[in-house]
């Protein structure tokens, strides 16, 4: 197998882009909302801790966001601020 300088540079660029993407996903802080009105302005159907909890509600699934706003889940069903 022959490696060219151009091919190696493309592979290096792709690797760096992938690492930047992973870093962005891992280190994006979760937003804590003051109340359900504020959360629903961004996530109209609420935020669920998992797909299983969201079911067919249409709630956004994000464990990080749910964990940051766990106190807004009044009925403790795994969905904060559902409609």
Please, what is the average pLDDT?
Answer: 85
How many domains? The number is: 1
Indicate the low-confidence ranges by residue numbers.
none
Counting DSSP H or I runs of 4 or more residues, the number of helices is: 4
Proportion of residues in β-strands: 5-15%
Question: What structural category do the secondary elements indicate?
Answer: mainly alpha
**Helix content percent band:** 40-55%
**Oligomeric state of the chains in view:** single chain
Reported for the largest beta sheet, the result is:
3 strands, mixed
How many E-type strands? 3
Shape: elongated
Order of helices and strands: HHEHEHE
Strand order of the largest sheet: 2-1-3
Rg, nearest Å: 19 Å
Give the CA-CA distance, first to last residue.
58 Å
């Amino acid at each position: 197998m022959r490696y060219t300088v151009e091919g190696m540079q493309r592979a290096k660029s792709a690797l760096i882009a992938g690492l930047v993407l992973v870093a962005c996903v891992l280190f994006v802080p979760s937003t804590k909302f003051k109340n359900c009105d504020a959360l629903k302005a961004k996530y109209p159907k609420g935020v669920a801790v998992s797909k299983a909890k969201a079911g067919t509600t249409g709630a956004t699934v994000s464990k990080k966001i749910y964990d940051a706003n766990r106190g807004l889940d009044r009925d403790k069903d795994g969905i904060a601020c559902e409609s």
